[in-house]
Request: fold
Amino acid sequence: ILEKLPLIGGTTLLSSTAYNAGGAAAQKNYTAKDYEAKLLKGFPKADAHDRANIRQLAELSGPTADWLSAMGADLSRVANGSQLMPADGGAFGQMIVPVLKKRADALGVKIVTNAKAEKLLTDKEGRVVGVEASIKGGEPQAVPAKAVILAAGGFASSPDLVKRFSPQWAGY
Reply:
């Protein structure tokens, strides 16, 4: 894992609210369909492609919450149907990052902080085979990988994206 920030967990560590899901074991009467409907209500202009992505997100959210719980995440407090959070009301990020870090350690995953991915590396067929990254401010270097997952944080710092995808928050 290449983490741009100097700490493990990136901006997830700063998350103070909850994990949103539908159909998790902790949710007694709130299903993936309920969560899908809630998401669609917030994105009424969703096209067929967006609707398919929203459906998949909703369907996988409950099993993902249960997977996190099985690893020791406290997602036992439910609010507003879809929000799962620690029973003590503590910050979600402070709870979830150590759980994920423990799992990564158990799997032998190397985590490098202060590592800024600059460019995707591709083979002749155009498949992504790694990234070029500046590690700890050094010169960019190739980091080969069997798979690359880009996790670029949220879009809250982009007024245009907030207006497009969460118009209720535009201007905040």
